[in-house]
Queue: 3 jobs
Job 1
Amino acid sequence: MQENIDSKIGNKIKSFRLKLGLQAKKLAELVGISPAYLNLIENGKRKLDGDLLLKMCQELRIEISDLVDDNIITLNNSKSAISKNLDKKDLKSQNLKIGPKIRAFRRQLGIQANKLAEQTGISASYLNLIESGKRNIDSNLVIKICNELKINVSDLTSKSDVNLENNISELLSDELFEDLDILGPEVKDLVASNPKIAKALIKLGDNFKQKDIEIVNKVENISGKIIDKRKAAFPGEVVSDFLQENKNYFPELEKFAENVFNEIKINNRATYLSLCNYLKRKYAVKVKDVLPKEGKPFSKIFDQKNRELLLSDYVALETKKLYAAAQVAQEGAINIIEKYLSNFKFPSEESKKLTKVALLNYCGAAILMPYKMFHNECIKQKYDLELIQNTFACTFEQIAHRVTCLQDPKLPGIPFHFLRVDVAGNISKRFSLSGIEIPRYGGACPRWNVYSAFSRPGVIQAAVSKMTNGEKYVCIARTVEKGVGRFGQSKSILSIGLGCEAKYAKEFVYTENLSLNDKKTEIPIGVSCRTCDRLDCSQRAFPPLHKKFDVDINARGVSVYVSDK
């Protein structure tokens, strides 16, 4: 019987690997075993222990339940090697951390404790002890809980939220906390065991920063002098937090979008006219292209009374398409959106409305680029964004946004990070699934190619970026133009950055001319000058907070903050 189980798991691993286009040699390398041993596993001739099972699921971007079915779960009660090893190696030492995570996921889904207890065959009191970290939890129960919560085992047992860790690290890097000397392991432990407290600290940091800005604004108004030009858009940060928490993937909106696309598609493409006709036919909304009056520019206006969507003739056709698709979402998917919003605590009504706009645009983009078709095109073209543009007739930024949404556990894409900056270095959009740290409270490292892209407008720049912790990322960047298209009016220029971990290089077309192992061509980057400890950087604008420096009037290193001694 066990042999049959091993064979089933092995076959499933091979199937998922081939589905991702991953060579056996590469997968073996990623999980730390030999190709020969992987071959034995895929043929059912070797068992998987708990550690290896988790690693395999993480690299294949699947849930453990995709490999382990109900029959195998039953056998875990007896002598299954998977159960024993998973319990022994991955769970026993993490009971204190797993319990609070289970509670967090349960509450996020709005499931009562007694209901989850009933579904998993335990008492409500025992579940309470587990969630409080006062009782051990075996692998069989973990799998059952994960199935009911629709999460991956690695969500409970793997390392904690990297982005939350990064935000906490950035917050604590402020000179206010310099004397406390809080180290990285302490931050990781906090986020892993008490993610809610970590989020509370971020909210306090945001609030403090907001109050600081308000004081600066008052001083500026009284004095008539500019003190601080870096005004953070905190409602925008809330949007980023919301998207990050949901991994920028909203399955119910994807389903709605796919149904709409199937109704309006023309030659496998959503056209502007088909969207306009659909709005008129389905929701009695008329779309009108209008020329804005002098001195009263706009992009779109929805006249609820007359049921008219007015779109400016100054915006590009691709943008009009997105506005029309977003209006479809507003008419037909608003209840779905409200449900998603209800699961998140917003600090202000302003931030909630801004997030609603983000979800409307998300759904609009999903209508223009339905998930399965878009995913297939990404795999086919190896994420060549400009080629994908041609397929779906969308803008570069829209495509870059959309590739970050491919997080369906059954059909995943590459986990990307995304950011948008202006020429002053302000980050107006940010999202990271790659694990790279994107600053929350200020500008990013000037060595990031998202800034150098301004020197070559419209050209995609690719680079291998190496963080201070040794992690490597493949990053691309390109400028885009935003604004009205008329003579005499200048457009704003923004830079779009997109990237992933170096381990996905073979799946990403922009690595074809890059050498991932050539240290001479990799670009050493940091997060920001305040948190970066690279002392050999000629672009350093501020001294590092956690390193002392001496200014020598007789000597200068690569920057004024670095001596050549």
Note: Residues 70-95, 224-233 have pLDDT under 50 and may be disordered.
Job 2
Amino acid sequence: MKENKILALKYRPQEFKNLIGQDVMAQTITNAIKIGKTPNAYLLTGIRGVGKTTTARLIAKALNCEKNENDSIICTGEKFCPTCEEIINSNHIDILEMDAASKTGIDDIRELIENSKYSPTSAKYKIFIIDEVHMLSKQAFNGLLKTLEEPPSSLKFILATTEARKIPVTILSRCQRFDLKRVSVEQLVGHLKNILIQENGKISDDGVRLIARTSEGSVRDAISLLDRALVSQLVDDNSTIKEKDIREMLGLADRSKIILLFKEVLSGNQNEALKYLKEFIDDGIDAKNFLNDILEVLYLFSRRISLGPIKKDMTISETEIQLVDTYSKNIDMQDISLFWHFTIKTIDDLNIMGNENLTLEMYIMQLVHLKSIDNKKMIHEEINSENNFDLKNNLVGKKINDENLENDLSTQIKNQLKNTDQLKTKPIKNLSPEAGETKNEIMNFQDLINIAIKEKEVELKFDLERNVKLVSFNRGKIDISFNENLNKNFIKNLTEKLLLWTGERWIISLSKNTEAKSIYEQNIEKKSLKIDEFQKSDSAKQIEEAFPDAKLIDIQEEKND
């Protein structure tokens, strides 16, 4: 019977040499294993789908392989040794894989530590692979620390994560870290073409490049998209899948058409621009994908203006290069910056608006009229003023190194526009309390949350409790750090609300403090400590004896009337 494995599993590398785009890391690990200088713990970091779990399994195989063939540290060929075969099938008794996203608590780590005391059953090393390790709780990390530092000689840890910055420094310092790189479009294209040959698939070169570009450096995402494209082809259809078919499958717009849309926007031809938009909508374009494609086009314009002619590569076609060359003469960096800002704002609006098509139409009309505004210079002066986080010195005046010219330019544009919503707002008269109106006293962070509840500012309250990490609180000034889920307009909204509620202008500053925790995180830690404390008590033991299958998940204090 024909094998029907999904391609991402079917073509998972079984040797270090087959890892895509990770040559340096693979060679380093291989050399260390050959000479017997292996660390107690490995830490593998990188974006999703870049090969962290695959690399972890390869390390496990290399450390335990029964018949290293020739110069290889892993047995090769069609027939693997029993140990490698069991690791490939994820059923080796000495290789334990744990998903920290679902097992985050101290009890899970205690079980792991208890298991570490026993010698391997059949393999040379007992190996613990902990995926998404950054999801472990603070208590779990603390429990892991000692064992990680001085494990038994027959025990190795392999930790994998997409968020290395969330891992405590004490853990990082005890691991040998390897950062898996994003795979280039060129490498992905070559890999996908090899798979197509083996699968007898027919996809045009432009279609393969589009898949590679859309995957954003993730090998797994690229192969999954390729699998999806091949499945979408009729079994009895011998035709080649075109780039157009891939775009329809993914809900992506033709970038060439987007550039032509911009031609009409820049010329002030609203009706023609809306006609192009209608074509995209009729083709079933995804609104967010469409806006992200627009951001890509804006970046191409910025490259052309600032860096000169664009060199052809795997990420851009010859047609797109010609169109950008032609129409970049009608746009300047001020326009690009403002268009970028409005595009990001529209992406946020999509989460609020129920009618996506209406949102896109209003967006295009805004761009057309924005191009004709005469006070763009004033807008940019406002963005780049010295009182607004000194953006002029930090961003506009930054010298760009020749080696990283393109990356630096992209980063400048993105950072400038990200910070736009965090600028100080000028005094707004109608926000100040009227005569005789009672001003609210906000003396601490809890007072702020309480007034947000009182004023029914649900979204603001949610951000304050969940996404904001208080560093310091003083009358008129709040220092915070935040997580990636914070509303982009949070600082602007909070500043306006504080002026409205107190009649005073407050300063909200951003801190680099990584130790601060949100109220939500603090409450989770407190609850965890209470649970741990209660589990040590006699009452807990009595309950466990009476109900052996029960599990304590929460503790609530009784409130006095």
Note: The CA atoms of residues 68 and 191 lie 26 Å apart.
Job 3
Amino acid sequence: MRRFTFSMMLALATVAANAKDVLDAPTWTDNLTTTEEAKDLTRAAAMAVDNEGNSIVTGSFTKDLEFAASYLEHVANSAFIAKYDKAGAKKWAAGLAGAATITTVATDADGNVYAAGVFADQVAIKDASGDTKATITGMADKVDKVSGFIVKYDKQGAYVASKTILAESDAEIAALDVIGVLSPSFTAKKLVVDGNKLYLSASYKGNVDLDGVILKGKYACSEGWLYNDETTMCVLSFDAADLANASIVSVLGATEQLTNEATYNTEDVNFAINDGKIYVAYVASGKDMTLTAAGKDTKIETAYEASATEHATEHAYVLAAIDGDQVTTQVYHSVATDNSNTLNTIDEMAYQKGKLYLAGSFNQALPFDNTISYLGGCDAYAACLDAASLSKNWAVASAFDEGDAKHKAEIISGMLVDEDEVTLVGWVENTKDRTIEAPLGYQINTKTPAMQKGEQVLITSVAENGNYALYQTDNVKGSDEDKTTEGTYSYIFYNNAESSGISKVLADDNTIDWDGNEVTLAKSADITVYTAAGAVVKSAKNVKSLSLADAAHGIYLVKVGKQALKIVK
């Protein structure tokens, strides 16, 4: 796969009407308005690109949705799945009419589409014709989206199968819950199809019965009477054909069903698959955890210190490689702190050529390298591990101070991996009201390695398969002012990663930056600026900056030696 650099993301600032006039323009762009208010969009909605270059997009809709020949009527805040072909033509849309959110989507070699998520009450599953093909029912007396679902469509948008996944409190412990705070739930996180199997990572509270396969809930009790659900996370498998034959691939949670002295929670899970081998990564806290994989139990212990007035907790990264009945584990420890606002995550994970790439955020000493600390609320990181041994090759962090440590965080929403570089996208979020305060983009040269802050254009989701790349952004800010604005998803697609064209080549070890008015370089060099038509706009010899404040708005190409950067003014 060709590198995808931050300057590529500048294309998202180009409206679809101008796409044909841009050098190395994307194959297609589109805007899709689906909600009456922007705040009702699903932020970072799941997407996928199949092996033919078709784009599968998902999201929320609160207004009736017309897409190609499909017409979907909404009920409450409903969820849709839509398909574009690789030329950008709309093919079909299907959906879940009711209180539902799609959290993950995947495709297989035959073009079938799988989606999973959460829902409440009753939800009608619609196919591409708009007809109801099945109705799923969530946990009784629950208005929140705490029940799980999986649905499968064929490549034409015809309904194939669906599965409802419900959780319930353990009866004996629920009887002791005198104030009724137990809250069972099941949340789908990531789907991957490998061969004839569909794999799903998820978090759950309470007991989950998967056609006789039981996920056992875990609980904590304090003061002798206050009972709480502990969060457990897992990776499951199903037959891809009909979503039957559930099986547990891996589970990490508290060793004991009920603990009285401390909490033991699994806080995140991600995974990747290559040639039948499954790599799972968890974030966990608690001194007595158990990892179960391939029928084997491995005790996981992380630092936890508690007294009557204070406690310190470590949030470690737990890795497992599962190859048939063989399991290799590796725990990357942090340093126990009293930080109650824990932001250690594994948001992205991918396998490529014998290496595992992971990315997310952290606000303890980075588990992959305890010498790396964070600034502000947290920092973004990327790490590369040897897939065979799970040992660390390298780890880097953003070292970016986003401000208020209690209410600001770096959110990573996408990762693109090339042999020579890793690209991360996301935003700075106010954790109090979930408003987006600034876009983020990072580029890691894997040969150095080093993390560099790139062009800041908001990308909320990324999907690619090595040959095709799809980017998404939206108009959600999270503030009250968005209540008067319809919600719109924006997409940009490249059907050939090798010729995506909007590149920032690092061949001669210089750095080109653009702040909206001025081009700046890390070291002095000759600068030439061209229009989209190839005409020279400005040039300068042996300088470190060049102002374009007097240039007209438009798209330009900046060339510095062997490097080039597409900019939008």
Note: Helices lie at 171-176.
